[in-house]
Design goal:
Layout: E1 2-3, H1 6-9, H2 14-24, E2 30-31, E3 49-52, E4 58-62, H3 67-78
């Protein structure tokens, strides 16, 4: 899920975000908050990636994760078998 913070960081409007998502072919769910989510004192930079387990508990947080690290966190959190390095 993406979270549009453009209006709160000077990066553009909701319309700008929607245009960018369409241009880049991004189709995952995106939220457009009413309040400024960047005011959370633990958010010190963008991008900000937060993983939650199926119970809603935060399991990992960071600025940028490699694809390998994201795969490891997601498969571990969801109890899945990791994908192989060749993508199969």
């Amino acid at each position: 899920m993406g979270l549009d913070v453009g209006p709160y960081t000077g990066l553009g409007t909701r319309s700008d975000a929607q245009s960018l998502l369409q241009e880049l072919g991004i189709n995952y769910p995106t939220a457009y908050p009413d309040g400024d989510p960047t005011r959370d004192p633990r958010i010190i930079g963008l991008p900000q990636t937060i993983f939650y387990d199926t119970e809603g508990a935060k399991v990992a947080r960071g600025g940028f994760f490699s694809g390998t690290t994201m795969n490891r966190i997601m498969t571990s959190t969801l109890g899945l078998t990791p994908a192989s390095e060749d993508g199969s």
